[in-house]
Amino acid sequence: MQRTYLVTGGAGFIGSNYVFHLLRRSERVKILDNFSRAGAAHNLRWLEESFGAQAFEVLRGDVRDAAFVLEAARDADVIVHLAGQVAVTTSVLDPRADFEHNALGTLNVLEAARHSGRHSIVIYASTNKVYGGMEEEEVVEEATRWRYKDLPFGVPETQPLDLHSPYGCSKGAGDQYVRDYHRIYGLPTVVFRQSCIYGPRQFGIEDQGWVAWFVIAAVTGRPITIYGDGKQVRDLLHVSDLIRAYDLAIEHIERAAGQIYNLGGGPANTLSIWAEFGPLLERLLGRPIPVAYDDWRPGDQRVFIADIRKAERDLGWQPQIGVEEGVRRLFEWVKEHRTLFR
Q1: Is 137 helix (H, G, I), strand (E, B) or coil?
Q2: What residues contact 112, with CB distance under 8 A and at least 6 apart?
């Protein structure tokens, strides 16, 4: 059955990949984006070149505009809410704008879904930052990484929230609103607390999207700064595996509605951000990469690995693209499109 999808932030990294996926199977798609992010115009051009400008609708606007979002969602069967402010550092510099984009913007999306008349499914891209620094979890230092002492499967959805930083607060507020709109209004909503998502069409910067940023910087010869000791561990999830999770949640919405899922690469797809990722990137590049070191950034987790067993159990989902394969694909894409990063 063909559905109408509204993808907020649809010209961004995850959004454009998902829109491409939807158009390839002939869904009706509307992109809502304010085109403030670097790379959004390039991503839109890619979609137009791939499918034609008439294959989808582009709504240039902002999720902070409640009336605009309400009109955009009127015929939407599914709303995939990806728009928002994405950097912790930016949230510290301008917490009001961060709140308006993330918390208020999410409320506007939920209200639009509630009044759409379509009982719209809402998929919300939350973040592992809602768990804060997790200082209470003991970690053990090893030669190239930190590891949890007592969480062999990673962090479960039952981990207490600790909304550290304005970004964590604004995304966490959206997270809880999305969950509660299912409980109070019966809206079929799903929260994905996403770990490190990476892949093609990611225009990473130092403050956000570290995997893509390191690859872009290495390929284009820009300086790289490592904050902390470089042994911080993250679980990495390729964007194509994330997209499969969205599809499965929609397909099994009777089971997924009202649920929260930690979504990442899980224990099998982890790297420390430089002690292990650096040598992998140097092998791909074929030469050493000089880096500088600086102090730890506030709230930086020494380890974050998502426990993905709930998504496996409820949705039948598992990551399919391993870290080395996924990073190699991203590296090749950046090399092929290096003119975009000038």
Answers
A1: coil
A2: 66, 69, 70, 72, 73, 79, 120
Q: What is the DSSP letter of 208?
A: B
Q: What is the pLDDT of residues 104-147, one digit of tens each?
A: 999 999 999 999 989 999 999 999 999 998 989 999 999 999 99
Measured between alpha carbons, how far is 154 from 147 in angstroms, rounded to an integer?
10
CA atoms within 13 A on the CB side of 239: 22
Q: Are 6 and 30 in contact (CB under 8 A)?
A: yes
Please give the torsion angle defined by the CA atoms of residues 329, 249, 301 and 109, in that order, rounded to the nearest 10 degrees. Answer: 110
Domain of 84, CATH number, reads: 3.40.50.720
Q: How far apart are CA 86 and CA 112, in angstroms?
A: 22
Backbone torsion region of residue 299, taken as left when φ is above 0, otherwise alpha when ψ lies between -120 and 50, otherwise beta: left
Q: Considering only CA atoms, which of 261, 290, 59, 21 is closest in space to residue 156?
A: 261
Place of tokens 């869904």: 27
- Measure the CA–CA gap between 15 and 6, rounded to whole angstroms: 10
Q: Contact 223/101 with Cβ under 8 angstroms? A: no
Q: How far apart are CA 101 and CA 88, in angstroms?
A: 13
CA separation, residue 274 to residues 148, 157, 214, 290, 292 (Å): 18, 27, 9, 11, 11
Q: Which residue among 18, 124, 131, 167 is the active-site one?
A: 167
Q: Which residue has the tokens 């607060």?
A: 169
Number of domains within the chain: 1
Whole-model pTM over 0.70: yes
Pairwise CA distance, residues 177 & 110, whole Å: 8
CA dist., res. 259 & res. 180, Å (int)? 10
Q: Domain of 218?
A: 4-341
Q: What is the pLDDT of residues 161-219, one digit of tens each?
A: 999 889 999 999 999 999 999 999 999 999 999 999 999 999 988 888 999 999 999 99
- C-alpha span between 167 and 71 (Å, rounded): 27
Active site residue 131: no
Helices (H), 25-133: 40-51, 66-72, 88-93, 95-99, 105-114
- What token pair was written down for 125? 């891209």
